[in-house]
Amino acid sequence: MNRHIVVGRTGAGKTLFCIRFARFLGLHELTWLVERTDGRKDRRRMSLLEAERWLSAPHAHTTRQLQSIQVEVPRGKSKPSFLLTDTTGLADGIHPDSSLRDAMAKTLEAMLTAQVILHVVDADALGRALAEGEHAAWSALDDQLVQLGLHRGAYLLLANKMDLPAARYGHQFLAHRYPKGKVIPISARQGTGFREVRDHVWRLA
What we know:
alpha/beta, G domain-containing protein, GTP binding, GTP-bd
């Protein structure tokens, strides 16, 4: 089954996007396939509310393994399905926690074999950093993720948190910097932009 992998920095809103996008596609309950760094796999079933409460949190590195939901995208009489895979947030440098280093390595490994890459960016944080003139507002890590995605071809850059005031500046920066990429403004919290994401996923599924 094709894998659509959701990647990005810690705190970008990847897990909330997965949960809300699955709801947008019609799921009422989530069964996660969890792939641990030691190779073991298990399943975890929960309601959408439980998923948001336990898996999506403001503190860093809530997700520490690959966790996937099987979703369908109706296309006429057919319903192609794929795995929507949430991942550990990536960070610059070498993390002191060895388990997180392993989880990040697993994320990068999965990126290389995924059929589609959905790259979630905190556009509000980016916009605020740009407004404050921070030199590292957009780091080498961020750029490397984009370049890898563009090289693969099946890649969407999702400018998240568009419900927050500085996000429009972050979105403008991304659209200008990567004119050859597909940059979609979304709000995982409010569900805006999901229709456009679905339409592109529909073509890629």
